[in-house]
Amino acid sequence: MRTEAAQRVELVFSLFDANGNGVVDSDDFDLMTGRVLEVATTSDAGARDALRTSFRRWWTTLATELDANGDGVITVDEFRPFVLDPERFGPTVAEFAVALSALGDPDGDGLIERPLFLSLMTAIGFEDANIHALFDAFGPDADDRITVATWAAGIVDYYAPDLAGIPGDQLVAVRTA
Fold this sequence. Notes:
The chain is mainly α. 59% of the residues lie in helices and 3% in strands.
């Protein structure tokens, strides 16, 4: 696994541990789902349901694939070596990528404006400066928008263990506001 991917793994674990108790469990995904949906007020019910379903699938896949001792929680040691395995998590990541990027396009024009992108990514737990750097790395248009397809592809790339120098690496770079 590339160094950049290892850094992404550490960040993802900290984000998935939404309640900060040092492990990932189903409550974390309920908490994160609620935070994201709270800022997606203009998205339709279908998009909101798709996100809710994708977060549930994340938890189910993690619990099935990584909970080695069956205790209902994922420790960082259980998480680290396997979470970027495309064989295990590729379909889950793809479903999440489609759901989250669609949530960022409530008007259905295929474009995501920076303010909503910022709100959604903040709700997930990313840092403000890193979110802006990521959006900029996606190459927004003159009206400060990116395409849904660009964001979805960026999410999938983020979970690829063999990629480096991708826009998603902006999320793990240390930045000051």
